[in-house]
Every structure is written in C-alpha cells, then in structure tokens.
Design goal:
The protein has a two-stranded antiparallel ribbon with strand order 1-2. The longest helix is centred in the middle third of the chain and has 15 residues. It is mainly alpha-helical. The chain has 13 helices and two strands. GO terms for molecular function: alkylated DNA binding; DNA-3-methyladenine glycosylase activity; DNA-7-methylguanine glycosylase activity. Pfam families: HhH-GPD. Keywords: DNA damage, DNA repair, Glycosidase, Hydrolase. One of its GO terms (cellular component) is protein-DNA complex.
Length: 225
C-alpha cells in the first residue's frame, strides 16, 4: 500500500441527508484505469453514476466499519438503521450512554458491543487525534488504529478509503474485492491474494478507485462507511 503524506482537498457534494466529501482525483483516476485495464474501462462505463464519498466524521466511519465486519452489506445496513434509531446522532458519548443491552438489542453481537464501546472511549477520552491523521502515512495510521480493540487491518483500510480518501489502498482481506476480481478477471475461478495483487498492479496509483468499481460490479448500490 502506498503512502500519502497529505490528504487531498475534498470537494463537497449533496448526498443523502447532508453534504459529503468526494475526491477531486476521481476523473483522473477513471481515465488512468480505463486506459490501462480493459475490465476497469468496462466497469467505469457501466457505472458512470456516483463515486467514493466520505461522511466527514472519523468516529462514524469507524463505527460503521466495525458494524460491517464479517456480515453482508445488506445485513450491516439493517443493523445500522436500528442503531441510528437508538442513538439518534452517532457520537462517542451517545454510544457510551446507551449501554450494552440496548446495543445488543439493536443487533450487535456481544463482541461488537465491546468493540464499539472501546472505540467510543478512545474518542471520548482523547486518546485519538483525528487531526493528525491527514499528515500521516497509510501504514502509520493503520498501526495506530489496529491498537484499538476490534479494529484489524481491514477496518483500518476501510477508514483510509472512506474517511481519508487515500487513493491507493488495496484491501486484500476484503472478501468482496477478492470475489469481484475472481468474477471479472478469472471467470469465477478461485483467486489467491498474490493473483489479486498482480491484477491490481495495473491499478496503481488508484487502487482505492478500482476497488470501489469492483465492489460496484457485485452490488449496484455504492458501498459506503
């Protein structure tokens, strides 16, 4: 995974219930990918609407990533909808005030209740400094995040993609990415991590963008955290 020393300037766009950030490099990335990879050219043409978006809230993005661990996008959204109904505005203090029983009733497993509670404490106690992340390299941010209980490399990479909008993240632990590469490049045959990495070598320095289109190829609804 390549390092980006500073986060790109983010453009604003209307989306959902409010304004979200969209990456200014998207058009350049699509042109680059389309010129280097025939599959990417087809996918970009097939899904011309939308692009990667950030909700602009680091806690919210990490919460959604934890909720989405090891379950389908549809199931994760169902749990999230219940959590929103419970919490109202999702803040660290709201999560801590809620209590484990209510979080379990919203659909979180006992383990995930522990994870989101620990995450909320890290933010509430000031143990994390989100303002510092924009100047940090990808791997340094990953090391800081995986020190939090329940956050592994996959969750940290989702944060790099969906919050910091780093353009060249390749989440090889993502089941959807591996499955999408299998379908689009190997006619559905099983794909190893090394084979996926080799396919993705043509995507640099926009592997986050290519990953987003691979996800779209599996689900017409854009993935968001």
């Amino acid at each position: 995974m390549s390092a980006v020393r500073s986060s790109p300037t983010l453009a604003r766009a209307a989306h959902g219930r409010g304004a979200v950030c969209t990456p200014p490099y998207w058009a350049d990335a699509c042109a680059h990918l389309g010129a280097r990879d025939r599959v990417m050219a087809r996918l970009i043409a097939q899904y011309p609407d939308g692009c990667l978006v950030s909700r602009g809230d680091p806690f919210l993005t990490l919460m959604r990533s934890v909720v989405g661990q090891q379950i389908s996008v549809k199931a994760a959204q169902a749990v999230w909808d219940r959590l929103e109904g419970l919490l109202g505005v999702c803040t660290p203090h709201a999560v801590l005030a809620c209590g484990p029983e209510a979080l379990r009733a919203a659909g979180l497993s006992a383990r995930k209740v522990e994870y989101v509670t620990d995450l909320a404490r890290h933010f509430a106690d000031g143990r994390l400094d989100p303002t510092a992340w924009h100047a940090m390299e990808d791997e340094a941010i990953i090391r800081e995040l995986v020190a939090i209980r329940g956050i592994g490399r996959w969750t940290a990479e989702m944060f790099l993609i969906f919050h910091l909008m780093r353009p060249d993240v390749l989440p090889l632990d993502d089941v959807g990415l591996i499955r999408g590469i299998s379908v689009s490049y190997f006619s559905g045959e099983p794909v190893s991590r090394s084979e996926a990495r080799e396919v993705a070598s043509a995507w640099a320095p926009y592997r986050s963008v290519a990953t987003w289109y691979i996800w779209r190829s599996l689900d017409p609804l854009p993935v968001a955290y």
